[in-house]
Design a protein that fits this description.
The protein contains 24 helices and 22 strands. The chain has about 575 residues and is of the alpha/beta class. The protein has 3 domains: about 170 residues, 3-Layer(aba) Sandwich (Rossmann fold); about 160 residues, Rossmann fold, CATH 3.40.50.1220; about 190 residues, Rossmann fold (3-Layer(aba) Sandwich), CATH 3.40.50. A 6-stranded parallel sheet has the order 3-2-4-5-7-6, with helices on both faces. The chain has a 6-stranded parallel sheet with strand order 11-10-9-12-13-14, with helices on both faces. Helix 7 links the parallel strand 6 and strand 7. Helix 1 crosses helix 2, helix 3 packs parallel to helix 5 and helix 9 crosses helix 14. The chain starts with a strand and ends with a strand. The relative contact order is 0.11.
C-alpha cells in the first residue's frame, strides 16, 4: 500500500473537505506543510500580516460563506496569537479548523524553542482541541475536526501538529465517514414540546419572538419570516440576531438590551410569552436577571443543551437546530390575535423613536443612513465600541445584506480583517467595515493584505479621538474622569497638565496612501455621499474614509450597568 507523509495527507484531506482558501502564516514547524501547499493549485493561500488578523479573516470567511474557515500557523507565538480569535469564534458559534505547528514529540515538555501547550491554553475557548501524537490517527482526527466544527452548535477546533508526526510516512487513506462516541449532535425537534409551545403562542395576549444569532447561523431567516407573517407576532432581536427578519419588516421592533430600542425593551418587559430562538440570554440583553421578562412564560429553542436555562429559567426547553425547528413551526403555526398588542408597541415606538437628535454637525446616524441608501447588496463588518452600537441600531439588514460583528467576546480589531475575509469569500458583494479610531489601529497592518489581494473594501473610521465607549461610561457614571481614553494624550499632555495636545496620530489618510490604498477625510455631513461615491470607483484597492466625529456623540438609549430593561437613559 502506498505511503505518504503526514504533510501530504493534510493537503489531501483539505481538498477532500472542499477547502478552497487557507489563511496561513509560516514558521519552522509548518514549513514542510507550506512546501506541500506550494505544489498544488486548488487551494488559495492568503498571507495576512498578523496571526490575530488571520483568524478573524478566516472567521468572517466562514460567517459569510457558510463554509468552514481554515487557519494554519506555526508553533509558539504563532499559535498563541490565535487565542483572541478562537475565543471570538467560540462565543459567536463560527466553524473554524485551526492547524498549529508543534515541536517534535521528543522535545514536547522540555521548554523547547517556540513550544507551548496550545491545546491546554485554548481548551476553554475551543469546541475541541487535540494534539496528533500518532501518524496513523492523522486522517481520522482531521475528518473529525471538520465534522465537529460544522455540526451541532458550530465552533472552532484546534489541531496541534508535531513536526515529526507530519514528516512520518503512513497510510494515504482519508476516511469517508465519522463516528465519534459521545458526540451525536441532535437536530431533530421534539414535536411534543414544540406543539406545547405553539399552543402557548396561540393563547398568549402579548406574544413576542426573540431571535438570536442562531437564526442567522442556521440560515433560517426566510422560513422564520414566514412564521412571523403567519402569526403576526412581533419580533425583537439580539445584536447577533439582527437580520433574522428584514429590518424594514413591519413586525420587526428592533434590538433589545443595553443599547436596544425603547419599544423593544418595553415589549420584553410587558410580553406574556417570550418565544426565543438561538440566543444565550447574556447579560447585555437581560439586565437584572430576576426582572427580565417578569410577566412572561418563556420558550427557548437552542441547539446547545447547555445554553438552555443557564441564565434565564425557561418554561418550555426545546433542543434543536433553529432551521429544523422553525421549519416545523411553519407547518403548524396559526394566526395569533395581536392587533391590540401591536398597537401598544407602535405607541412606544412613536413615544420614543430610535433616532439621534438633529444636530448641525455630522453624526454616526448620517453616515450609516448613507450606507443604507447606497448599498443594497453588501456585507457590513464592524469593530467593537460606540460605532458598533450605532451600526446595529441604524443599519438596515435585508435579504441581500449581512451584518458580521464580534458579539459575544467584543473583540476590538475584528472589523478590518473581518472585511478582508468576507470580501475574499464574496467577491461579488460590496464589503464595508465600520471601525472606531481605536479599534482600527489594532490590526491596521492588514492594509498590506487588502492591497496585495486587490480588495476594493470600503473602510469607515469614526474618529472621535477617544476610546468612545469607555469614555461614554466615564462621562455618565465616573464624573467625566477620562482616564486612559484620550488617544491624543502622551508626554505633551502630561507636561502641560492637559492644556496642550499634539495632532492626532496617525494621519489615517496618509497611512492608507502609504500602503497603496485610497484615503478620504470627511468633516461635514454634506460630503458623506460624495465620499462613498468616490470609494465605489476604486475596484482593485481599498478605500479608507475617515469621518471626524464629535466625541460628545453618545449611544442612546442605554441601560445603566446593573439596571433593568425599563431603566433606560434616553438622552442627555
Amino acid at each position: 500500500m502506498k505511503q505518504i507523509s503526514g504533510n501530504k495527507l493534510l493537503v489531501r484531506a483539505l481538498k477532500e473537505e472542499g477547502v478552497d482558501t487557507i489563511f496561513g502564516y509560516p514558521g519552522a514547524c509548518t514549513i514542510d506543510i507550506s512546501d506541500e501547499l506550494y505544489k498544488q493549485d486548488d487551494i488559495r493561500i492568503i498571507l495576512p500580516r498578523h496571526e490575530q488578523a488571520l483568524v478573524h479573516e478566516a472567521d468572517a470567511y466562514a460567517r459569510t460563506t457558510g463554509k468552514v474557515g481554515v487557519c494554519l500557523v506555526t508553533s509558539g507565538p504563532g499559535a498563541t496569537n490565535l487565542v483572541t480569535g478562537l475565543a471570538t469564534a467560540n462565543y459567536d458559534s463560527v466553524p473554524l479548523v485551526c492547524f498549529t505547528g508543534q515541536v517534535a514529540r521528543p522535545l514536547i515538555g522540555n521548554d523547547a524553542f517556540q513550544e507551548v501547550d496550545i491545546v491546554g491554553i485554548t481548551r476553554s475557548i475551543t469546541k475541541y482541541g487535540v494534539i496528533v501524537r500518532n501518524r496513523e490517527d492523522l486522517g481520522r482526527i482531521i475528518k473529525e475536526a471538520f465534522y465537529i466544527a460544522r455540526t451541532g452548535r458550530p465552533g472552532p477546533v484546534l489541531i496541534d501538529l508535531p513536526k515529526d508526526v507530519m514528516a512520518e510516512l503512513g497510510s494515504a487513506d482519508y476516511p469517508d465517514t465519522v463516528n465519534i462516541r459521545g458526540y451525536k449532535p441532535n437536530t431533530n425537534v421534539h414535536m411534543g414540546q414544540l406543539k406545547r409551545a405553539l399552543k402557548m403562542l396561540k393563547k398568549a395576549k402579548k406574544p413576542l419572538f426573540l431571535a438570536g444569532g442562531g437564526v442567522n447561523i442556521a440560515h433560517a431567516n426566510e422560513v422564520f419570516t414566514e412564521v412571523v407573517e403567519k402569526t403576526e407576532v412581533p419580533v425583537v432581536t439580539t445584536i447577533m440576531g439582527r437580520g433574522a427578519v428584514p429590518t424594514d419588516h413591519p413586525l420587526y421592533i428592533g434590538n433589545l438590551g443595553m443599547h436596544g430600542a425603547y419599544a423593544s425593551n418595553m415589549a420584553v418587559s410587558e410580553c406574556d410569552l417570550l418565544f426565543s430562538i438561538g440566543t444565550r440570554f447574556n447579560d447585555r440583553i437581560t439586565g437584572k436577571l430576576h426582572e427580565f421578562a417578569p410577566n412572561a412564560q418563556i420558550v427557548h429553542i437552542d441547539i446547545d443543551t447547555a445554553s438552555i436555562s443557564r441564565n434565564i429559567h425557561v418554561d418550555v426547553p426545546i433542543v434543536a437546530d433553529a432551521l429544523e425547528a422553525v421549519t416545523k413551526m411553519n407547518e403548524y403555526v396559526e394566526h395569533c390575535e395581536t392587533k391590540k398588542w401591536r398597537k401598544q408597541i407602535a405607541e412606544w415606538k412613536e413615544e420614543h423613536p430610535l433616532t439621534m437628535k438633529n444636530r448641525v454637525d455630522m453624526g454616526p446616524q448620517d453616515i450609516i443612513e448613507e450606507i443604507n441608501r447606497q448599498f443594497d447588496n453588501a456585507i457590513i463588518a464592524t469593530d467593537v465600541g460606540q460605532h458598533q452600537m450605532f451600526t446595529t441600531q441604524y443599519i438596515e439588514i435585508t435579504k441581500n445584506k449581512q451584518l458580521i460583528t464580534s458579539g459575544g467576546l467584543g473583540t476590538m480589531g475584528y472589523g478590518f480583517p473581518a472585511a478582508i475575509g468576507a470580501k475574499l469569500g464574496n467577491p461579488d458583494k460590496d464589503v464595508i467595515a465600520i471601525s472606531g479610531d481605536g479599534g482600527m489601529q489594532m490590526n491596521i497592518q492588514e492594509f498590506a493584505t487588502a492591497v496585495l489581494e486587490e480588495l476594493p473594501l470600503i473602510l469607515c473610521v469614526f474618529n472621535n479621538e477617544y476610546l468612545g465607549m469607555v469614555r461614554q461610561w466615564q462621562k455618565l457614571f465616573y464624573g467625566k474622569r477620562y482616564s486612559m481614553t484620550n488617544l491624543k494624550s502622551g508626554a505633551l499632555f502630561r507636561r502641560t497638565n492637559g492644556q496642550e495636545m499634539p495632532e492626532y496620530t496617525p494621519d489615517f489618510v496618509k497611512l492608507a496612501e502609504s500602503y497603496g490604498a485610497k484615503g478620504i477625510r470627511v468633516m461635514k455631513k454634506e460630503d458623506i455621499a460624495a465620499a462613498f461615491e468616490e470609494a465605489k470607483k476604486n475596484t482593485k484597492t481599498p478605500t479608507l474614509i475617515e469621518f471626524v466625529i464629535n466625541p460628545e456623540e453618545l449611544v442612546y438609549p442605554m441601560v445603566q450597568p446593573g439596571g433593568t430593561l425599563e431603566d433606560l437613559i434616553m438622552d442627555c
